[in-house]
């Protein structure tokens, strides 16, 4: 990655080094960078971790995410996903829905990151191996500090720096957590891969007593297992508590280290201020329960790029344009996730799978809603 040191102008708020700084080289940041290059903007991605990146994720790319990757010219390996299945114990507590249109794909995070990095490099995106430690904006641009006295100045900045976004904090966009979200209700995620031939082309979601377990086929001989639940999740204990899954994984070799993420719920005051826009998990997050974070994040990235590209052509209120785009990309999914989460934390939790099985049209409509 390039060692990027902005000139005196950069530090002093003068000439911009580029049109757009993307803080964070996760999938949403890289998608935004590629999209901005496709519109002719000069882009610098700042990411402190070595690429390709890994992260705790269920790794199910919904059909809508696949369509957006195709539009960006990104091709990913992995395993076809034809639909979603909800399971609870054995027997009739089983709801399934297969996507009505094109399929999705289970893709290992490192493979997704690698494909996005290759595409970004081929589009002319510049990478800087650093952490953004401070930002200052004025009417004409944003200057970020990268530590060691170096800095970059750009016309626009996207904070794509994940759940615990430093950009969100630096830009004053963080909202206080709701008081009723007591620590016991905070949710976390864990993920690990196993060398097992996938037994299904669907993402299987096992509804356990206090957590949900996602099994995603990500290759011809590999599955990913992600668990969502409260603090103190014990991966092995959870698997052992689901006999149908424990039997499948009995003797299977782990194919990755255990990774975690959380707390998942993150609130924001707005999704942008001035020349700083928040995109992806950084822009607020409800939960991974419905498994469409990447689809939504990629749609937000497209909306953010369109908003700043529009401003290059004619005077537009970029913050307003992005708020509209963010809402279009996220509101429906967030409402569905929040509703399911409320059910998951209610006494009716044990009815989620039986009701989904009893009303396949409702379950199917919900799956189609998160898929696209
Ligand atoms: C357990 C779990 C399961 C999930 N399952 C699914 C699923 O099946 N399907 C799906 O679509 N979504 C799923 N999600 C959601 C999905 O993982 C996220 O929505 C997605 O990773 C968001 O990507 P992002 O690029 O916004 O953030 P990230 O991938 O978190 O990337 C943020 C990047 O910013 C960088 N960064 C942070 N601070 C700085 C700084 N100061 N300077 C520069 N860079 C910085 C970080 O190093 C990181 O690389 C799941 C999430 C969890 C936790």
From TrEMBL:
Q: Where is the FAD-binding domain?
A: 18-181
Quote the Pfam families the UniProt record gives.
FAD_binding_3
Q: Which domain of life is it from?
A: Bacteria
The protein's matches in PANTHER family, at most eight in alphabetical order, are given as:
GERANYLGERANYL DIPHOSPHATE REDUCTASE, POSSIBLE OXIDOREDUCTASE
* Name listed for the protein in its UniProt record: Flavin-dependent dehydrogenase
Organism equals: Subtercola frigoramans
């Amino acid at each position: 990655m390039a060692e990027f040191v902005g000139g005196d102008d950069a530090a002093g708020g003068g000439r911009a080094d580029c049109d757009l700084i993307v803080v964070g080289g996760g999938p949403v940041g890289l998608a935004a960078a590629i999209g901005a290059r496709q519109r002719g903007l000069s882009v610098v991605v700042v990411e402190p971790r070595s690429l390709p990146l890994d992260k705790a994720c269920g790794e199910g790319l919904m059909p809508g995410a696949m369509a957006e990757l195709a539009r960006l010219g990104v091709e990913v390996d992995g395993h076809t996903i034809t639909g979603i299945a909800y399971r609870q114990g054995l027997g009739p507590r089983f709801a399934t829905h297969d996507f009505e249109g094109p399929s999705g794909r289970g893709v290992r995070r490192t493979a997704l990151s690698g494909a996005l990095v290759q595409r970004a490099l081929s589009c002319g995106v510049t990478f800087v191996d650093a952490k953004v430690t401070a930002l200052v904006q004025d009417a004409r641009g944003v200057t970020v500090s990268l530590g060691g006295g170096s800095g970059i100045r750009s016309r626009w900045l996207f904070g794509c720096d994940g759940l615990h976004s430093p950009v969100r904090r630096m830009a004053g966009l963080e909202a206080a957590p709701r008081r009723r979200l007591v620590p016991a209700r905070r949710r976390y995620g864990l993920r690990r891969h196993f060398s097992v031939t996938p037994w299904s082309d669907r993402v299987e979601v096992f509804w356990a007593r206090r957590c949900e377990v996602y099994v995603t086929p990500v290759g011809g001989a590999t599955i990913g297992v992600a668990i969502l639940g409260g603090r103190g999740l014990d991966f092995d204990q959870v698997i052992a508590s689901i006999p149908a899954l424990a039997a499948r994984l009995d003797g299977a070799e782990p194919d990755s280290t255990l990774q975690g993420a959380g707390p998942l719920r993150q609130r924001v005051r707005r999704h942008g201020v001035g020349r700083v826009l928040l995109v992806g998990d950084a822009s607020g997050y409800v939960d991974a329960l419905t498994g469409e974070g990447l689809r939504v994040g990629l749609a937000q990235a497209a909306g953010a790029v369109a908003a700043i590209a529009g401003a290059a052509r004619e005077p537009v209120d970029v913050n307003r344009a992005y708020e509209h785009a963010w809402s279009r990309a996220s509101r429906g999914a967030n409402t569905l996730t929040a509703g399911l989460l409320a059910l998951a934390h209610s006494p009716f939790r044990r009815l989620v799978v039986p009701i989904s099985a009893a009303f396949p049209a409702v379950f199917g409509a919900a799956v189609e809603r998160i898929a696209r």
